[in-house]
Every structure is written in C-alpha cells, then in structure tokens.
Automatic annotation (TrEMBL):
<protein>
    <submittedName>
        <fullName>Erythromycin esterase family protein</fullName>
    </submittedName>
</protein>
<dbReference type="InterPro" id="IPR007815">
    <property type="entry name" value="Emycin_Estase"/>
</dbReference>
<dbReference type="Pfam" id="PF05139">
    <property type="entry name" value="Erythro_esteras"/>
</dbReference>
<dbReference type="InterPro" id="IPR052036">
    <property type="entry name" value="Hydrolase/PRTase-associated"/>
</dbReference>
<dbReference type="InterPro" id="IPR014622">
    <property type="entry name" value="UCP036794_erythomycin"/>
</dbReference>
Length: 418
C-alpha cells in the first residue's frame, strides 16, 4: 500500500500513475454534502481530462438535468453560456447534490477547457440515474415533435398509461402489484422505436434514446420499489451501469469516462455486506463487464466535520455536525495513523491487516441524524478490495448549495438516499 499526503493537486501523481491504463475511473464520496470531497474530486477529474484524455464525466444525477449542463459545457447550440444557470434549474430533491458551488466551479473550468478544442474533442457531462420518468417523457415529446412527428403517438400512448397516477409514481408501483396497471408494454414499444432511430448519428437522437431508457428503467424501478428488498436498488445500479456503457460506446472504442457517485455505488459491493443481501452496484458491475484492470475505484472518507443533509425526507437541507467516527472503524484507524489529508493506493504484498479484513466504514446519505451514529451509518468493508485507492480527509466542511428550485420531497430515492 502506498500512502501520499495531499496538499496540492500534484500530490495525486501516485494515484494518476495507478489509473493510467484504466478506461473507467469511479470517484466516490462518503456523503452527498461535503465540500472537501467535491473539491478534491474536481481536482483529480481535471487532471484526468487534461493529462490523460478522459472524454466525459457521468454522475449520479438525472439525465435531463445533466443534459442541460452538458449542452452548456460543450458549448452546444441552445446551451446556457453559464453552466451555473443550468445547475440552478435542478428541481428534484435533494438539489444540493449537483446544484452547488463546487460543481459549478468544475463546470466553468470544463466549459473553458472545451472552448479551446474542436467540437468532436470536447469532454461531456452526463447523468446516469433512473428517477426522471416524467422529465424524460417530456424530453421525448419535445424531440419527436420536432424530428419525428409520426412517432409521437407511441410516446403519447406510454404517457397515457402513467397519466392516471399523476406524478405520484409510487402509486403506480403500488397499483401494479394488485391490478393490471403495468405500463411495461407501452414503454417497451417506445424504447424499441427510439433505439431504431438512435442508429442514425446525432447527439439529439442519442439523448432521445437515453431518455427512453430512463423511462423503461424508471417503470421497473417504481414497480420494484414497493416490494422492498434489494430489487429496486439493483434495478437502479444496473441502469446506471448500462448508461455508462452506452456513453462509452457513444464516445468511441477508445473512450474513457469518469464517474462521480456515492461510495455505496462506486465501491465494489462484493467487498461489503451488500453482497450477502443480494445487492450489486456500478463499481462491481464495471469490474465484471470491463475487467478489474480497466476500472479504478476511488473511495473517500473523513473522521469528523460538517455536512449538508436533511433531518427528514424532503425537508430543507442544513449544515450538520458529523461527530468523530466510532471506535473500530476505518475512519478512527486513519485518524490515528494519518491526522492529515492523504491518498492511499492499494495493492502489493504489504497490505496491513485492517485493509484486508472487514471493518466498519461510514456512509452518510441525504437524510442524516448524527445521533444515530452509534448504531447506524456504517458498512462492514474490506477496504483494499472495495476500492483501488482511498482519499482521506481527517476533518471536512459542508458544501455550498446554489439557490436552486426546490420541489417538495418525493419518494423517488427513498429509502436509500445515496
């Protein structure tokens, strides 16, 4: 195991050497609301794009919202001149995950970087997630209305199937358990049509195809969600892994992508107790599909600090105190060994015992109650198997949300919240 203290972006050199041959680099976060994770992830990603030629960033966010950001950063016709304008249009709770000053800083840099490059060589910004059923449906309507009015009826049929439930898709999920309320057939027809059209070149056709994939994934997700168990989690992470693969295909045979998501998605589930519960995640799926040598998984963690989260589902975000990590955890051990920022690169014969055996590793979602720390928020983890590298911040601070539009709390990411 190699340990490098972090003080400047150049201190990521050992990690960059480790990921030099990777096609996919996934960079995690132990919370969705920590400034330090976002800032260090930005520094690492900028170097991956500028020095190693990575082609896009794909995040744990909705495709339609992120597509507005993408159009801004690649300077596409109709895209906002300021990426922050696109970020401030994020409406789904929790908006602060991507609508924050730290992501805005990165997107400003990415747009400036792209402006100096030909159109076909610009780095993109995309969403991997599955939640945006209604927004993706509307995007399909907008596209077909302009490009293929003859196919609009198929999309409208799919929409009419969901319409009786308004936008309360959890009601659709409940109804599908007891009556023949499933919209699966209409969605499958819509997906087949848009897949055929996507065979033709063009970013708008690809976006329409991806929105149709989201609609199909969302239908499966909301149906699985009401049944409990691991199925809805797996539907979501498989969708994200499939979207990543489509992006790699879209960008070309030599394409390389960076993924930003929570540690629970990025770190290989087989090295945690998630596997015993029948759960998979995008880190595991990427290793299985592309080979471990082509995938680098980077986790994050801290001992104490502050974080932006919400005390209840759908309630306003607030800055909360993250207490010192509990005894026996990864975070407590690293606090004792490395009371500074550092990056740990795993591998080799000299792995310490606490890296190879199961040990508690903290995970904080969008809903957080610090008083639960004594019995919750920890995932048993073999750190050296779960990640290829780990970024350590002994003390962290809360990120800075933008004044985004905030919609009422929805059931869509409940109860996982990561």
């Amino acid at each position: 195991m190699l340990v490098q203290r972090l003080g400047a972006p150049s201190d990521f050199d050992p990690l960059l050497a480790r990921v030099r041959d990777a096609r996919i680099v996934m960079i995690g976060e132990a919370t969705h609301g920590t400034y330090d994770y976002y800032r260090l992830r930005e520094q690492l990603t900028r170097r991956l794009i500028a020095e190693q030629g990575f082609d896009f960033v794909a995040v744990e966010g909705d495709w339609p919202d992120c597509d507005r950001v993408h159009r801004s950063v690649v300077c596409a016709p109709g895209g906002a001149a300021d990426p922050q304008v696109a970020l401030e249009r994020f409406e789904r709770w929790p908006t602060w995950m991507w609508s924050n000053a730290e992501v805005a800083r990165f997107c400003h840099w990415l747009r400036a970087w792209n402006l100096e490059r030909p159109e076909g060589q610009r780095a993109g910004f995309h969403g991997l997630d599955v939640y945006s059923l209604w927004e993706s449906m509307q995007a399909i309507f907008d596209y077909l209305g302009e490009e293929d009015p003859a196919s609009l009826e198929a999309a409208q049929e799919a929409y009419r199937c969901f319409e009786p439930y308004g936008k309360k898709v959890e009601e659709y999920g409940l109804a599908s358990r007891f009556v023949s309320a499933r919209c699966e057939e209409e969605v499958v027809r819509l997906l087949a049509r848009t897949r055929e059209q996507a065979a033709a070149d063009g970013p708008d056709r690809f976006a329409a195809w991806q929105n149709a994939e989201v609609v199909a994934g969302a239908e499966r997700y909301y149906r699985a969600m009401v049944g409990g168990g691991p199925e809805s989690w797996n539907v979501r992470d498989i969708h994200m892994a499939d979207t990543l693969d489509r992006l790699l295909d879209r960008y070309g045979p030599e394409a390389r992508g960076v993924v930003w998501a929570h540690n629970t998605h990025v770190g290989d589930a087989r090295a945690t107790d998630m596997a015993a519960d029948g759960m998979v995640n995008i880190g595991q799926l990427a290793r299985e599909r592309h080979g471990a040598e082509s995938v680098a998984l980077v986790g994050f963690g801290s001992y104490r600090g502050t974080v932006v989260a919400a005390p209840r589902w759908g309630s306003p975000a607030e800055a909360m105190v993250v207490p010192p990590a509990r005894e026996g955890s990864v975070e407590r051990r690293l606090h004792e060994l490395l009371p500074e920022r550092a990056v740990l690169v795993f591998g080799g014969p000299d792995q310490p015992d606490w890296v190879t055996r199961p040990i508690d590793h903290r995970a904080i979602g969008v809903v957080y109650d610090p008083s639960f720390e004594s019995w919750g928020n920890y995932v048993p983890t073999r750190l050296g198997d779960r990640y290829d590298a780990f970024v350590w911040c002994d003390e962290t601070t809360a990120l800075h949300p933008l004044p985004a539009l905030v919609s009422p709390g929805e059931m869509e990411t409940y109860p996982a919240g990561v």
